Amino acid sequence: MKLKTLVLAGILCLGIVASATAQDKVGFANFELILSYMPETAKIGTDLAALQKQLGDKLQVTQNYAETKVAEYEERRGAGETDEQLGDLIKNLQDLDQEIKKGAADAERAIAIRRQEMLQPVLDKVRAAIDKVAKDGGYTYILNMVDATSMSIILHGPEGNNVTELVLKELGVDMSSEGDNTGGN
Known about the structure:
Blueprint: H1 2-19, E1 26-29, H2 31-37, H3 39-78, H4 87-137, E2 141-144, H5 164-170
Parallel strand pairs: 1-2
Helix pairs in contact: 2-5, 3-4, 4-5
């Protein structure tokens, strides 16, 4: 699947470059690297970790309660009670299991929604900087040099067309002091 995506991305890039006329200028940037240097990204990570802990702690309370009910079930079963006698407890355990599964799914959904809400202004800011760099530099196209899985889409290109540093400069971000520069080139 990754190979198909890479091949399709390469064909798309070649198609764009091949269809470019003499006046078109193609640049590329490492979007993930740009995001890693944004101070807002670190705060988003911290805030999401706090939310994840909060939701996890809430879910843990229900899990702990379920564990006490399982222990009660095992104790009563060991004492010789039948499933019929344990019916209410079994039903309670089934309900708790569903509640825990639903709680985990709801927590994942809440984190994903919050991540998108927090990240959207940063993405908009980066997009505006890319648009300005493209306009100022006379670029017709600015391509992302890596995809979401960190696979390179731009396998080779003139270093002068790499606008990553120009975008960071437009954003007012100093590459030497912020972010984690593991985004690769």
